[in-house]
Amino acid sequence: MDSTKKNITIRHLLTMSSGLKWPGNEAMIPSKNWVRFVLEQPVESEPGNDMKYSCGNSHLLSAILQKATQMNTVDFAKKNLFGPLGIEDFKWYQDAHGIAIGGFSMAMKTEDMLKFGLLYLHNGKWNSKQLVPAEWIDKSTRNLAVEETSYGYHWWILRDKNTLSEEDKTFYAMGMGGQYIFVNKQRQLAAVFTSNLTDDVSSPIHYYKNYILKLREG
């Protein structure tokens, strides 16, 4: 591994600014070792300089978590997050080496997606128990991207003319085909969209901004 790759940090992976080239899922999936495939990609930019969305970054985070905890990421999530939230019916696939896929291939019920949104809305608390540190909630939902793209720690930040302040921002998670979790703390709002879109996967954002957010203003 060259010296530039050694400078890649967990924060770079969280903010999609590792600088590693990302050829796409279609290139990674056929490879025998996904972690090695991601790490062997050439460095396109200095870590921390450019934000480029990459499922490979997310998969490295899953591999790091498994090594650090000595637990499969799925089991770790069941124990510390899904279990307390009452999330039982979900699918989360693994690569050929038993590493839970970090960037895609998770499916769960709409109501369970909402539980995750409510957890963030309430600063990491669920039934009076602090499941996720409030400091992490705050850091992960701030715009930390190095370019104009608004992005935190794996959360997108929605900014438009209706945003009154930093506290009034909406942050959201976005999945393939138009799956969304929207959270706005100022307005005490959590909303979920499930879709099967192939063309304009951003249309739920427009619905959220033009209808749900405006209704909440009233």
End-to-end distance: 55 Å
CATH top level of the largest domain is Alpha Beta
What is the CATH topology descriptor of the largest domain? Answer: Beta-lactamase
Strand % is 5-15%
Largest sheet: 4 strands, antiparallel
Q: Give the overall average pLDDT.
A: 92
Secondary structure: helix percent? 25-40%
User: What structural category characterises the helix and strand content?
Assistant: alpha+beta
CA radius of gyration is 18 Å
Following the backbone from N to C, one meets helices and strands in this order, namely: HHHHHHEEHEEHEEEEH
**Which residue ranges are poorly predicted, with pLDDT under 50 across at least 5 consecutive positions?**
none
In the CATH hierarchy, the architecture of the largest domain is: 3-Layer(aba) Sandwich
Number of domains: 2
Strand adjacency order, main sheet: 5-6-7-8
Q: What's the helix count?
A: 9
At the fourth level of CATH, the homologous superfamily of the largest domain is DD-peptidase/beta-lactamase superfamily
| Morphology | globular
- Secondary structure tally: strands: 8
Pfam families: Beta-lactamase
EC number: 3.-.-.-
GO molecular function: hydrolase activity
Organism: Paenibacillus shunpengii
